[in-house]
Each structure stands twice: as structure tokens, then as C-alpha cells.
Amino acid sequence: MRNKIGVYIHFPYCEKKCPYCDFNSHVTKKIEHERFLEVYKKDFDHHFAQLLQKPSLESIFFGGGTPSLMEPFVVEGIIGYIKNRFLENGNEISPHFEVTLEANPSSFEVQKFRDFKNSGVNRISIGVQSFIEEDLQKLGRVHNKTQAIEAILHAGEIFDRLSFDLIYARENQELQNWRDELTFALQTFNPSHISLYSLTIEKGTEFFKMQSDGKLSIPKNQEEFYDITNEVCAEFGLNRYEISNYAKQNYECKHNILYWQMGQYIGIGAGAHGRINTKNGRIATMNFNAPEKYLLSVEKNGNALQTNEILDAQTIATEQITTGLRTIQGFEIYGIEQFLALEKVKILEQEGLVIQTPNRIIPTNMGLSLCDGIAKFIFQG
């Protein structure tokens, strides 16, 4: 993964802010698409110039916000610009190069799917979240069940690589209800990839305030929901390759694997994070969150960096352990032995939570669901 790189492009606007969402998303009446394209190019150039080696371009990922609100000419323009910059510099582009764009199932966005395909997108990820009308309304979604179904079917006719998201352990949801909903989704669409997330109440969201005021309660038996999720996905041939992601063989999301396996990724756009290897070491970057501040800063200074930090060995080891334990591949031991309590790893191995090979620590199925606790247990800083 260290010789591969991805580019994450954040588009910060949504039609509506969902009550559970803590991502950097904003609602606006006007989007300056031409301006964003030029700023994206300039922002990319700043990060690209810092790269130490010439890694192969593995992926581009448009996240948000709601990137499907972008005009296709912006998507096509920035994809072409990034590819040309890599090729001009003597870098390779992976033969399995993947471009993902996140979308919502509104009719306006669905009409643009073919335009996005023609712009260079070859993978679409649709934010469905639920197929239950009442729950879609509670989650603040602007689409209904029929639109969600039509969006998936339409996208499936256009894109070879398609994923959609669902949220479980929602308010008043019963285990059997979730089993039935997930079974419906997998039977109806036979997806090659699906992302399934437990509803988490994040500080600063509308749901957080509702929960604090006693107006929202979510199921406490989330582990049982997770077990059902794994069971149903396995029945339909979807392999869990990361704690919340399931795919058929060779349909894993290449960009997200870069995150989890300590690859490099350039982050452009408002609030975007990045990790790149430079002559000064591995650097963590984060841009300003506010869209207008981001735009003005790039236009004036060539970048919008709020954070530009050289990571020390301990921080790199922490990230390697915590991200690796989210996946079925685990993480490499080589180079971070001093940050591992190997005697504690032996304990976990005896309990059936991890497997230690000569150069890797790999979580078992049971250990994968306890990845955060395991990371804290075995790390010694």
C-alpha cells in the first residue's frame, strides 16, 4: 500500500442536513461549480508537489456532503486533471483504477448517473440508509423507498461497481425487522458491495440533542444487530472485509482499503483529511471546514491547510494498529514492535480474538467486532 495513493475530494453541500450526520456538510442556495473546479485543481497541486516518491494512482473518491449534487463537468474536469498530472510526472495509473462517487437517491441526482459515468466515474455508492418509509423520515432523508429502489436499479444498469449504505439499530427497530429489511435488500438487488453501519449518536448532531433531552432512544443490544448483519451477509455471499463493509470477491472498495492499510491519500476540499509521505516524513493534513474559507484560502495561498503535521513514530504506529484491526488483513508488526505489548497479544490469541503470524496480527471474526478495545489493550506508547 505504501507505493499506491488515492485522492479524496470533499464536496461540502447537501440538500438537507440529516439529524444523525456529523460530517462536514452544509446547505446552500447557490453552488459556484466553476470556482470549485479551479480551486480543486490548485489544492491538488499543492499536495501533489509534496510527494516523496512516485506512487501509483489507485483511486479517486468523491465524498461529502452529497457529491452527486456536483455538475458532471466538475467531476470530469478534476478527474482528468489529476490523471494528467500523474502521467506528466512519470507516475503510473493503476490498471484497476477506481473512481467512486457518493450519491443520494433523489430523482434529480439519478438523472445524472450516466453523465457521471461518462465523466470517468466507474463506481457509485448510494446513501439509502433504510427501506422503511417511517424510518427514512426520522433519519431526515429526502427520498422515499420507491426512489431508493429505482436509484439502485438505475445505477446497476450503468455501473459495474455499485454499493449502497444502510443504517441499523435505529429507534424502535427490532432484530427481526432488521433481518427482514437486510434480506429484502440483498435478495432484491444482489449487490456486489454494501456498507452497513450501526446508528451512532454523535456529539453536535440533532440526534445528540434529542437523546440528551430524552426524545430519542436507540437499541442497546447493538452487538446482536451486528451478529445478524454478519449472518445475513454471509448467506448471500458477501464477505466482511472491514468492520462495516461487505463485498463479493474483488469488489472491495479500493480507496477505503488505502485508509485501512496505511496507504497514502491526498485530501482536497473543505474539511478533507490526507496522509502523504514527503521528504520530511509522513504528514497528516486537514483543510478548513467552512466552504467559503476553504475557497478563499486556496485562491489566496494555494492551500487551505488547518493542519499540516509531521507524524511521529508513535502516532504512525497507533494509526497502523487501529486501522488495521478494522480489517480481516490486520496489520504488519515490522517496524512497530516497540509499541506493541506482545505478551498481551498472546493473551488475546488464547482467547480467540487475534491470530499472530510472523509479521502480522489479524483479528478473528470475534475480535473484529472488538477492534477498538483490542487496539487500546495491546498498544504501549
**What is the CATH first-level class name of the largest domain?**
Alpha Beta
Number of helices: 15
Helix content: 25-40%
Q: Globular, elongated, flat, extended or rod-shaped: what is the shape?
A: globular
Q: Taking Cα atoms only, what radius of gyration do you get, to the nearest Å?
A: 21 Å
Strand content: 15-25%
Count of DSSP E strands? 15
SSE run: EHEHEHHEHHEHEHHEEHEEEHEHEHEEHH
> How does the major sheet shape up?
9 strands, mixed
Mean of the pLDDT scores? 95
Strand order of the largest sheet: 7-8-6-5-4-3-2-1-9
Give unreliable regions as ranges: none
How is this fold's topology laid out?
Blueprint: E1 4-11, H1 33-48, E2 56-64, H2 72-88, E3 93-103, H3 107-110, H4 113-119, E4 123-129, H5 133-138, H6 145-158, E5 161-168, H7 175-189, E6 193-198, H8 206-212, H9 222-235, E7 239-242, E8 245-247, H10 254-260, E9 264-269, E10 273-278, E11 281-287, H11 291-301, E12 305-310, H12 313-324, E13 331-332, H13 342-350, E14 354-356, E15 360-363, H14 365-368, H15 371-378
Parallel strand pairs: 1-2, 1-9, 2-3, 3-4, 4-5, 5-6
Antiparallel strand pairs: 6-8, 7-8, 10-11, 11-12, 13-15, 14-15
Helix pairs in contact: 1-2, 2-4, 7-9
Architecture overview:
The chain is built from 15 helices and 15 strands. With 381 residues, the protein is α/β, with parallel strands linked by helices. The protein has 2 domains: 4-259, Aldolase class I (TIM Barrel, Alpha-Beta Barrel); 325-381, no CATH class. The protein has a 9-stranded mixed β-sheet, sandwiched between helices. Strands 10-11-12 form a 3-stranded antiparallel β-sheet, with no helix packed on it. A hairpin with a 3-residue loop joins strand 14 (354-356) and strand 15. Helix 1 runs parallel beside helix 2 (72-88) and helix 7 runs parallel beside helix 9 (222-235). The longest helix has 17 residues, at 72-88. The protein starts with a strand and ends with a helix. The mean pLDDT is 95.
